[in-house]
Amino acid sequence: MQNKEFTNSHDYAHAMKLVADFLLSKPAFNLPDYEDGFSAKLYYYADKAGFLAAARALGGVKNVTDERYFCLTNKLPRSQFSISAERSAVCRLIEPAKPAMYDCEPLLSQTEEQELSHAE
């Protein structure tokens, strides 16, 4: 369901300006130490056509953030703007995820393992 107040990127930008004006109208305060810039992201979820239209308009750098989302990010001075969609909506599945497999070399000698098994 689309928010009728935000029908295009310019509507979204005007709303971001309102947030900026609000912050600038208040006393300055310190940001958390981990903040290193402003970041905004639009999620298209399963809307491939919408994501592709935004990607063509914005460009950006490919950035897969996790197993679920595919992102395109535009890095700007002290900020970044990203669009994101579910990878299942915009990518072709090549190989389904497999459970992790581990090969753990013996950590204990046979003697130590026997001692521990007899201690139980």
Verbal overview:
By secondary structure, the protein is α+β, with helices and mostly antiparallel strands. It has one domain. It contains 4 helices and 4 strands. A 4-stranded mixed β-sheet has the order 1-4-3-2. It is elongated, with a radius of gyration of 24 Å.
**What separation lies between the terminal Cα atoms?**
59 Å
> Looking at the structure, what is the overall shape?
elongated
Mean pLDDT: 85
Poorly predicted parts: none
Q: What is the structural class?
A: alpha+beta
Give a short summary of the structure.
The chain has one domain. It has 4 helices and 4 strands. A hairpin with a 2-residue loop joins β3 and β4.
Name its key features.
120 residues, 4 helices, elongated, alpha+beta, 22% strand, four-stranded mixed sheet
Secondary-structure map:
Layout: H1 9-24, E1 38-43, H2 48-58, E2 61-64, E3 69-76, E4 79-86, H3 87-90, H4 110-119
Parallel strand pairs: 1-4
Antiparallel strand pairs: 2-3, 3-4
